[in-house]
Design a protein that fits this description.
Length: 332
């Protein structure tokens, strides 16, 4: 038999329950992350690039900032051959986030790659500058002069090789017949040039790239202009729409003691994920990418170009919903 509580007892019980509810609510509020940042946890993998490239160093520093901002998140880095390889890793499930150039993403979409419609972007990062490096006493003054030479063209899964193929086409050269392509990355090309095993090499990366800087301290080199290919490149059609004319300033590589700026081609880098990534995770990673610009930029100068005002321009990919939520939350 249940004995009914006296009226006063019931009131006290209800009042006590209300107090408990308020205390729990306050406790829950107190446990929320500062600024309302979503708590994210679990393991994520970021695909970067070759060990001595800008992607790899940027990834190393971004991992440190993610560990600070989201301590419950276990971030792993995986090296790769570059943009094309990164997209393969992402779409096969071997990575959750990847850095890739806009032209490589576009090629993947146009080629109807696996689950291409699931690709999403978190941010536009910084631009890669196409760099053609030769010995200082080389007679090469244009990509058109590379005929019959041994040329480092990047690894087969790299964005470097993708752009190189298109630049050579714009220069009227056949990749397989008119040059001897040496398919290695920035971790090997400088040494091969120094040892005279190649005559030139292409590199697509942020300014400056440490591997090029280091080479210049021990071996005389120069940058070859690529500005004469801007028009022919754009005449290749839609596949070249993500390339823009750019200039490498005199102080891009102080070690070269250059007298003039060098005209070249640039392409944007994107932080890419898929629609399988949760909104809170995408929002948290995007927030850290934007907040970490100045700290990372001290070591990776290209990262200084990461900007909240331009980060949302991620063509050819739509923004991930979590990234969109972050940008809306900080919109003036």
């Amino acid at each position: 038999m249940v004995t009914a509580l006296p009226r006063l007892g019931r009131r006290r019980a209800l009042a006590g329950a209300a107090v408990v509810a308020v205390v729990l609510a306050l406790l829950g509020w107190w446990l929320l992350p500062i600024d309302g940042d979503p708590v994210v946890k679990g393991r994520v993998v970021l695909a970067t690039g070759v060990p001595s490239g800008v992607y790899a160093r940027y990834g190393d520093l971004l991992k440190e900032d993610l560990a600070r901002d989201s301590p419950a998140l276990d971030v792993r880095l995986t090296r790769s051959e570059g943009s094309v390889d990164n997209l393969r890793k992402l779409m096969s499930g071997r990575a959750n986030f990847a850095i890739a150039t806009a032209d490589a993403v576009s090629a993947y979409l146009d080629g109807h790659g696996r689950d291409a419609d699931r690709l999403r972007a978190c941010a536009r990062l910084y631009d890669d500058y196409m760099q053609l490096i030769v010995p200082k006493d080389s007679a090469v003054g244009s990509a058109r002069d590379l005929r019959k030479l041994r040329v480092g063209v990047g690894e087969d899964g790299s964005g470097v090789q993708l752009i190189t193929r298109r630049l050579l086409e714009a220069a009227g050269l056949d990749f397989d017949r008119d040059i001897t392509p040496v398919r290695v990355g920035i971790d090997k090309m400088p040494k091969l040039l120094e040892e005279k095993k190649i005559d030139a090499f292409f590199w697509s990366g942020g300014l400056p790239t440490a591997a090029v800087q280091n080479l210049a301290t021990r071996y005389p080199i120069k940058l070859v202009q690529l500005g004469d290919l801007t028009g022919p490149l754009h005449r290749l059609g839609p596949k070249a729409r993500y390339y823009r004319a750019a200039v490498m300033p005199v102080d891009a590589y102080p070690e070269l003691h250059a007298q003039h700026a060098v005209k070249t081609i640039a392409v944007a880098n994107l932080l890419v994920t898929t629609d399988r990534t949760g909104r809170n995770l995408a929002e948290s990673v995007t927030r850290t990418v934007i907040k970490s610009r100045d700290r990372i930029g001290v070591e990776v100068h290209a990262a200084q170009k990461v900007d909240l005002r331009t980060a949302v321009f991620t063509d050819p990919l739509p923004l991930h919903e979590g990234a969109r939520r972050y940008y809306l939350s900080v919109k003036p």
